[in-house]
Amino acid sequence: MATWPTTLPAPLVDGYGIEPVDQTVATDMEVGTQRVRRRSFAQVDTVRFAVNLSDTQMATFRTWLYNPDDADGGAGWFNISLWVGKCGATAVEARFKGTPKWDMTGNHRWLVTGQFEVRYA
C-alpha cells in the first residue's frame, strides 16, 4: 500500500476537521417513529484537510497523486498519520474523496485542500 510522501508536510490545523459517516439507515413507518438500523460496522470518517506546499513539494504531490502505484489519481488507498481523536497522530488508511484543489497563495506557495475518506484498520 502507498504511503503519504515523507517529503510532504502533515495537514494544517486550519481547515482540518472530521465528519463521521452516518452508519444508520432509517425507514419511515405508516404510524409511529422511524425504524432505524445500523447499516455497517465499518468505522469510516471524512476528514477535511489543507496542506501548504512549496513549488518543489507541489511537484512531488502531483507526481505521487497521479502515480498508479501511489494514490492512483485519488482512487488508491494510502497510509498517513492523522489526528483522528485518539492520542496524537494515528496511522490510518485513507484515500481522496473527490479531487483535491490547489491554489497559489503567493511567493511560490500552494494551498492544497480536499477531503480524505479514512478507514481504521
Fold and architecture overview:
The chain is mainly β and 121 residues long. It has one domain (2-119): Elongation Factor Tu (Ef-tu), domain 3 (Beta Barrel), CATH 2.40.30. It contains one helix and nine strands; from the N terminus they run E-E-E-E-E-H-E-E-E-E. The longest helix is centred in the middle third of the chain and has 12 residues, at 55-66. It is elongated and about 60 Å long.
Q: Could you give a short description of this structure?
A:
With 121 residues, the protein is mostly beta strands.
Which properties best describe this structure?
elongated; 121 residues; two-stranded antiparallel sheet; 9 strands; mainly beta; Elongation Factor Tu (Ef-tu), domain 3; seven-stranded mixed β-sheet
> Do you know the CATH architecture?
Beta Barrel
H/E topology pattern:
EEEEEHEEEE
Query: What is the name of the CATH class?
Result: Mainly Beta
**Structural class determined from secondary elements:** mainly beta
How much helical structure, as a percent, in the residues? under 10%
Low-confidence stretches: none
Total domains:
1
Give the integer mean of the pLDDT values: 92
Total DSSP E strands: 9
User: What is the fold named in CATH at topology level?
Assistant: Elongation Factor Tu (Ef-tu), domain 3
Number of helices: 1
In this structure, how is the largest beta sheet organized?
Answer: 7 strands, mixed
C-alpha termini separation: 13 Å
Rg over CA atoms, rounded to whole Å, is 17 Å
Shape: elongated
- DSSP strand (E) fraction? over 45%
